[in-house]
Design a protein that fits this description.
This protein has 314 residues and is α+β, with helices and mostly antiparallel strands. The protein has 7 helices and 14 strands.
Length: 314
């Protein structure tokens, strides 16, 4: 059995709540210098790596800058901070619902990603919380789509993160969502929807495969109607990507504000925060795997299309 290499602690501090990038040099390779490998691997553009090396921005495990002519060392680690592109600030609060020495539970707004990825790095719940709360070790126990609002669980201590993540992978967390979608009296509810959902990397929309063994299950309940709209309680029993959005769309009840289902719309300007997806992670309930405390958290947010449709639809 091949053991994974021990990863040394990062010698660089976080910047704007974001960890430095880490690169492990492959055990095999014909590069003569660290510089040659980084130029080939990172494809950062002409002269970028050379400038970073000259400025001492790439460091080894002891924090010492890597020199431009440093010989290649198989298996070694280097760290650096990427130059981040400016991001439009998501102008909504990230409300802390609960905080103790083990976990932080927050009520995430629409349009804020959970973790740094792609074009969303500093404007993510994780980066903002690390800065606002002063907890650099904070980590996400699970994720919510950027367009979905509601409850998110973060862990304070890295050594405990696995225990909380296992709660979600073992389906020992009771989750309840709220959605606003069209009301159709011909759709019988409550109803349990089961299907086989596939989400391919690089493809925006997930899709269902007819006749395949179900890998997703959601309970859909109608809790109110108003002016042709329905307010729905959604209880997922599995956690496939976009599961609730796919299941609601399959019933002919696409969630209001959804830019993917039933039709993928064109790109939206990064500063356009109108008509947010009307999906909210309302309830998060679990027994704490570290303390044994039974937790039940409820979002304080409301869905705009239900509270004031005309205002939401502007």
């Amino acid at each position: 059995m091949t053991r994974k290499p021990r990863i040394p602690p990062a010698p660089l501090p976080q910047r704007d709540g974001v960890d430095p990038a880490r690169v492990r040099l492959p055990l095999d390779g014909a590069w003569s210098t660290v510089r040659d490998h980084l130029v080939e691997r990172l494809a950062a553009g002409p002269g970028v790596i050379d400038a970073m090396l000259r400025d001492g921005r790439i460091v080894g495990a002891d924090g010492t800058p890597v020199t431009p002519d440093a010989p290649y060392m198989p298996g070694a680690f280097v760290w650096f901070h990427r130059d981040l592109r400016p991001e439009v600030t998501v102008p909504f609060t990230l409300d802390v619902v609960h905080r103790d020495e083990h976990i932080v539970v927050v009520d995430k707004p629409h349009f804020l990603a959970t973790m740094p990825r792609g074009g969303h790095v500093t404007q993510t719940a994780l980066a903002r919380l690390r800065k606002e709360l002063g907890i650099p070790t904070l980590g996400a126990a699970h994720r919510l789509d950027r367009l979905t609002a509601g409850l998110l669980l973060f862990t304070v201590r890295p050594k405990e993160r696995g225990a909380y993540q296992t709660l979600f992978s073992d389906r020992r967390v009771q989750k309840e969502y709220e959605a606003v979608a069209p009301y159709d009296p011909d759709v019988p509810l409550p109803r349990t929807v089961r299907s086989h959902i596939v989400k391919e990397r690089g493809i925006i929309a997930a899709y269902e495969v007819a006749g395949a063994e179900p890998n997703s299950e959601s309970l859909i309940e109608l809790v109110g109607t108003r002016d042709g709209l329905g307010r729905y309680r959604l209880t997922p029993h599995t956690g496939r990507t976009h599961q609730l959005r796919v299941h609601m769309n399959a019933l002919g009840l696409p969630i209001l504000g959804d830019p993917v289902y039933p039709v993928v719309t064109g790109p939206v300007a990064p500063d356009d925060f109108r008509r947010p997806l009307q999906l909210l992670a309302r309830v998060l309930e679990f027994t704490d795997p570290v303390t044994g405390v039974a937790h039940r958290f409820v979002s304080r947010r409301t869905l705009g299309a239900w509270a004031a449709y005309d205002t939401w639809a502007r």
